[in-house]
Amino acid sequence: MEKPIIANKEVTLHIMRSFKLRTKKKLGQNFLVDEEIVNNIAEAAELTPEDTVLEVGPGIGTLTQALAETGAKVVAVEIDRGLLPILDKTLHGYENVEIINQDILQLDIKQALGEKSFKVVANLPYYITTPIIFSLLEQKLPIERLVVMVQKEVAERMTAVPGGKTYGALSVAMQYYTEPTLVFTVPANAFIPSPNVESAVVVCKTRTKPPVDVDEEVFFSVVKAAFSVRRKMLTNALKNIGISGEAVTAWLERANIDGKRRGETLSQEEFGRLANTFK
Ligand code: SAM
């Protein structure tokens, strides 16, 4: 029998009513109800039956279903135990789906996914969007690409270029690990319940090699200090790394960067130069 498409308002409401499900705001439970959007997300992942895909937060199985239809192996990690009986029912018959009831931030992903490279696809819970993304990236897992739905404002910051209003530490960090592209925006009414923000889907192709050759700890300390005080000159902001004004001036000279500039204008390469000339 053909499975009904879950990414549909009536089907979703029917599932929620049948299981007397009340969505949990604190877990960021906003379910997609637009089939076209769900299909576009799955398409952006470019999945084949040879792929393995990690889905964070399957909810009632909406996106999981579209991912499973590609024939890829789907490992979906859901923190809310209450959703398990629903997933059991909605994804019944999809032999290529494995559900793990865990907090994604606690899961041993290497053990769960094995050695093979994989893709990540998720309509992320917005209360922990960046912790989830950076936990995945910092673990240096063999991730080929991430396709994530996030708040539009976060998507804009991830993909911002130097000099723009939204460029900050998040942009530098995301672009250090990946090449992110905002592929489309999603209105609030594509979800039940509707979140009070617009959303966007970002495709992040992971880099095989970072764009700059640096000591990561130093690099990220420099980035953090540069953006620690918005709209302040580097001569002031960089003191927050824990050194004197004189030391900052000498450092900026070594890096050949004008101290009157602001962190918001520095490229990845310039942050790299600062990291490599820090003493
Ligand atoms: N994938 C579904 C969809 O697109 O309709 C649901 C997405 S909903 C925005 C986010 C899901 O992530 C919820 O099901 C929520 O319970 C789950 N979640 C929240 N925090 C989580 C965590 N730390 N680990 C795993 N799943 C989590």
Assigned CATH class of the largest domain: Alpha Beta
Number of helices: 12
Shape: elongated
Which fold does the CATH topology of the largest domain refer to? Rossmann fold
Class by alpha and beta content = alpha/beta
Q: Any idea what the radius of gyration is?
A: 21 Å
Helix content class: 25-40%
Question: What would the average pLDDT be, to the nearest integer?
Answer: 97
Provide the list of bound ligands, each named once: S-adenosylmethionine
Number of strand segments: 9
CATH superfamily of the largest domain: Vaccinia Virus protein VP39
Strand order of the largest sheet: 4-3-2-5-6-9-7
> Strand-residue fraction?
15-25%
> How would a crystallographer describe the biggest sheet?
7 strands, mixed
In whole angstroms, how far apart are the ends? 67 Å
Order of helices and strands: HEHEHEHEHEHEHHEEEHHHH
Low-confidence stretches: none
Give the CATH architecture of the largest domain: 3-Layer(aba) Sandwich
The domain count comes to 2
Describe the 3D structure.
It is a single chain. With 279 residues, the protein is of the alpha/beta class. The protein has 2 domains: 9-206, Vaccinia Virus protein VP39 (Rossmann fold); 216-276, rRNA adenine dimethylase, C-terminal domain (Helicase, Ruva Protein, domain 3), CATH 1.10.8. Helix content is 37%, strand content 19%. It has helices at residues 9-18, 35-44, 62-69, 84-90, 109-113, 129-138, 152-159, 169-177, 216-226, 234-237, 245-255, 268-277; strands at residues 31-32, 52-56, 73-78, 97-101, 118-123, 143-151, 178-186, 191-192, 199-206. The strands form 2 sheets. A 7-stranded mixed beta sheet has the order 4-3-2-5-6-9-7, sandwiched between helices. A two-stranded antiparallel ribbon has the order 1-8. Strand 2, helix 3 and strand 3 (73-78) form a beta-alpha-beta unit. Helix 2 packs across helix 3 and helix 9 packs across helix 12 (268-277). The model has no long low-confidence stretch (mean pLDDT 97). The structure holds S-adenosylmethionine.
